[in-house]
From TrEMBL:
Gene Ontology terms, MF aspect: oxidoreductase activity
Keyword Hydrolase: no
Entry's EC annotation: 1.1.1.-
Pfam families membership: ADH_Fe_C, Fe-ADH
SUPFAM superfamilies, A to Z: Dehydroquinate synthase-like
Keywords: Oxidoreductase
InterPro entries linked to this entry: ADH_Fe/GldA, ADH_Fe_C, ADH_Fe_CS, BDH-like
UniProt keyword Magnesium present: no
Ranges for domain Fe-containing alcohol dehydrogenase-like C-terminal: 189-388
Alcohol dehydrogenase iron-type/glycerol dehydrogenase GldA domain span: 11-178
Organism: Leuconostoc gasicomitatum
Protein name as annotated: NADH-dependent butanol dehydrogenase A
Amino acid sequence: MMNNFKFQNKTSIRFGKDRLEAELHDAIAQFGNNVLLVFGSGSIKKSGLYDRVMSLLSDMNVVELSEVSPNPKISSVRKGQTLVKNNDIDVILAVGGGSVIDAAKVIASSKFYDADPWELVVDSAKRQTIEQLPLVDILTLSATGTEMNTGSVISNPDTHQKLGTYGPKTPAVSFLDPQLTYSVSKWQTAAGSIDIFSHLTEQYFDNGANDVTSGIMEGLYRAVIKNAPIALAEPDNYDARATLMWAATMSLNGLTSVGNQNGWTVHPIEHELSAYYDITHGVGLGIMTPRWMKHALSDETLPRFAQFGRQVWGLTGTDKEVAQLAIQETFNWIKSLEVPTTLPEVGIIDDTYFQNMAESAVMVGHLNHEAYVTLQAADVVHLFEEAMTDHDFSK
């Protein structure tokens, strides 16, 4: 049965080749003349994108915030808060992947907040009560879907926390040019593709699942599974890059969660790994997802896993055979992208923090009462232990 729901998304998507020269200036100018440009480690300068952007904004007052890192840190948000306040910023332009855009969203809220912006991460409800600067973004990595949603994930290394926070607005305008992802490394292409796959999984395995959104997600799953290997083998294959880019956006713009009941599971677990070890988010998701699937498979969940196997992986057989093989196919696909599939491969060689991470994941993610399959801390510790070695997931 479909639950009651409300759906609205106001982001203006500008998808396709070479739209910046014709549209970027006016997309920003509608909000004002004082711009905060947020970007990462400097790859946009090497690619020439920085010069393109700056030439288009030559008549505006542009202030820069660079060095936003993967798993964006609260320190970048704090620097951005100072800049938006001191320079009376009207609009933020974020150029980069999910980390850059996530940080920019919280910075956009922080202009209207006079205390530490970490409080806006810890308490999303507080963010909903204050204004948020308009945000324009130029996406350079297909992964998080942040270009068309209200969410951000921010890390605080001092407290070993990596938390999601939600603002009152989605980005105002998002430029999605698949050509800008040609230079993305194999590692980040693979990690981004796994991230998309995981976003779908968190929403597909839900007690409020319905035929409409299930069908949408199954199509998105198939598109990602097919095109990720193509993008790895042919980095400048426009169709593959375009498919991954739009699939990432569609997988987390709110449409695929319509009618859902349950909270997410693997993301809160992986956020603990990233908070303690600063590993690549998508890679961590790839390690933990098959382990969660194996744990979640039961007589009660068997029909859903069987549907997943038939509609996503094209498998045939009994429900039990298809469900088990679907988990193995998931693991095989992740491994085929040439990323680590165990925790030791990403530098986690012992169980020092397993209990702490498990307890935090359960508490922050409400895994013991809101998840599709509820988990206690001991269950999460077991998943970490399972992730120390490879397994046969077909049994």
